Amino acid sequence: xxxxxxxxxxHPPVDIAIIGAGxxxxxxxxxxxxxxxxxxxxxxxxxxxxxxxxxVAGGGRCNVTHHAVDERDYSGGSPQLIxxxxxxxxxxxxxxxxxxxxxxxxxEETGKLFPTTDKARSxxxxxxxxxxxxxxxxxxxxxxxSVVQVDGGFQIQFAAEKILARTVILCxxxxxxxxxxxxxxxxxxxxxxxxxxxxxVVPALVPLTLQSDHWLTALSGLALPAELTAIxxxxxxxxxxxxxxxxxVCGAVLCAHFxxxxxxxxxxxRHWLHLLDIDKNARLKINWMxxxxxxxxxxxxxxxxxxxxxxxxxxxxxxxFLRAACLQAAVxxxxxxxxxxxxxxxxxxxxxxxxxxxxSGTRGFTAAETTxxxxxxxxxxxxxxxxxxxxxxxxxxxxxxxxxxxxxxSFQWAWASGFVAGTAAAHAAIAVNPIKS
Length: 437
What we know:
By secondary structure, this protein is α+β, with helices and mostly antiparallel strands. It folds into two domains: 14-201 and 369-431, FAD/NAD(P)-binding domain, CATH 3.50.50; 207-362, Elongation Factor Tu (Ef-tu), domain 3, CATH 2.40.30.10. 31% of the residues lie in helices and 22% in strands. Strands 1, 2, 7, 8, 9, 10 and 22 form a seven-stranded mixed beta sheet that branches. It has a seven-stranded antiparallel beta sheet with strand order 17-16-13-14-15-12-18. A three-stranded antiparallel beta sheet has the order 3-6-5.
């Protein structure tokens, strides 16, 4: 069948139907077909552009994975459950797979792994080629409207066609970048098959907005390293599932006309949004001098003689930022350090090392790189990613309540969860009797 054929009124029964042919879906399809070459495997995707998220990832280069990945790089589900999936298909396996497909990966200083071509298209082409070579049929663009459990399998409805499948793998993404096809419809289908979705589903890895008159918006285009912590109104930090304080996020912050972006902001965004759900005054605490504590900076200022404030801080922070921070603290940057009152000195120290910022919101799912929230891992057999609500239904990728930090971690989750779901679905399809057409 031609990949884009929409004229056929019906489709013969298949062993495995993968709904969603993004990173996780294509990977699940490849490994399902490889696990048992006799199976009929079809991948169905309704996006205008196949693999749209892959193509835009990493600025069009596709950050395939990270050189060091473990469960601590993820939020959402239980770390121990996440670990069990990640170890089934580690980073080394990802590197080997893409090398086998003709895509060599290179490691950059940040630990991120990119294709040596620096082109995301080479990653997508390799996945599609591997799927075709394994015997997978890709139906695109075909938006799946519904999935209904029937005697011996599932009936999948899209456009004017229906497909019967012995097993189904749902990997339709979350709600981030809806133009790519992940508009939340996958959650609707998961619910229809008995699953729940976490009470809170929010954008993750998303820029944050500030009020238009906030002093940081005037610094648009300025990027600098910082340390960010999501805190409650009382100043205590956000906590993880185990009740432990979430460590500050370190990295670059980009001041923008709308607010804040950059890797550190994207990483802290999901923690702030989750905290905001329980504390409407949740905010960020930003240390613009990473590694420098308020007390030590205070002591340095007290002991410094014969220098202006600007001269003392020049070289540590961009002058443009320093002038804005001094203005915010009501301090003249040209004044001598010794001329500052204790009150003004404390105000400046807070602005530089414990700057509290209350975001007005986020740029939304349209600008988010992933989704925080989804189908709880507790509703799956974690070693197979098979539904505990609906036999022979498997789920993987962004649909699950797992989101990685920036740096290729979400892709590694897609590869690992796709591998587990794909291989397990193949065994399930082999074990059942043919569906009744």
